[in-house]
């Protein structure tokens, strides 16, 4: 985990949220999502308060609303699933604008939309304020199994390498006059995919041999020891603690 690795979700900044240790932000985001999921779906006002809390965090992190909303589009498939629930769910029916909808389906759709959107928004804010390398260090600090951290690290590092290899192969095909237009060209694409797999496998073997020759014995050395003081933990956990109060009120009221 030597050099940094920027990603499209990250937004460079110098806010206090950016400066928090990564493991505190990971713990806060996870705790917030757990609290949101634990909130009764009938407490609709609570989800509005959660949205305001996330908006306050985004404001403190200087993450523009347009940046956040654009990346929320990743949940569109879940929205489509939620829209179908009132039509396919069983149970008591109610007429809405001439349509017969399931009451349980409507509650289920609201539950999926509200909790899913808040969870995705929390994840987007986390990714926007934390670099991938820092996320891996945070997972390592939170005692995630080292093997899983290493697998994630290699996926991140060599995902771009494989993507770039695909781009070069595409350019090579196009420079020879090839352009995929139909089923009859699938054979060429399949051969390209096979060649890419073999190249990636061989590259992985060479990388592994290089690591072993440098003393790799199943664990990566810890270069940066990430720590957090009490003030940083308090600042990071302010979001899930406030959400927990709202959740408890949602169960009581």
Automatic annotation (TrEMBL):
It comes from the Bacteria. The keyword Cell membrane applies. It is a multi-pass membrane protein. Keywords: Cell membrane, Membrane, Transmembrane, Transmembrane helix. It comes from Streptomyces salinarius. This is Cobalt ECF transporter T component CbiQ. It is found in: Cell membrane. The chain crosses the membrane at residues 43-60, 72-89, 109-130, 233-252.
């Amino acid at each position: 985990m030597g050099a940094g690795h920027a990603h499209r979700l990250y937004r460079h900044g110098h806010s206090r949220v950016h400066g928090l240790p990564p493991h505190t932000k990971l713990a806060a985001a996870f705790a917030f999502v757990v609290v949101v999921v634990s909130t009764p779906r009938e407490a609709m006002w609570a989800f509005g308060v959660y949205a305001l809390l996330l908006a306050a965090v985004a404001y403190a992190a200087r993450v523009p609303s347009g940046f956040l909303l654009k990346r929320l589009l990743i949940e569109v498939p879940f929205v489509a699933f939620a829209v179908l629930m009132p039509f396919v769910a069983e149970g008591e029916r109610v007429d809405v604008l001439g349509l017969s909808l399931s009451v349980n389906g409507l509650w289920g759709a609201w539950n999926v939309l509200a909790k899913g959107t808040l969870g995705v928004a929390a994840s987007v804010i986390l990714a926007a304020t934390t670099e991938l390398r820092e996320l891996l260090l945070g997972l390592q600090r939170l005692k995630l199994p080292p093997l899983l951290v290493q697998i994630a690290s290699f996926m991140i590092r060599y995902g771009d390498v494989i993507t770039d290899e695909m781009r070069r192969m595409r350019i090579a095909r196009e420079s020879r006059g090839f352009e995929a237009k139909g089923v009859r060209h699938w054979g060429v694409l399949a051969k390209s995919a096979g060649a890419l797999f073999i190249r990636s496998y061989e590259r992985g073997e060479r990388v592994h041999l290089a690591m072993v020759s440098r003393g790799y014995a199943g664990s990566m050395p810890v270069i940066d020891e990430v720590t957090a003081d009490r003030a940083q933990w308090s600042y990071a956990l302010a979001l899930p603690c406030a959400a927990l109060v709202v959740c408890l009120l949602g169960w009581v009221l």
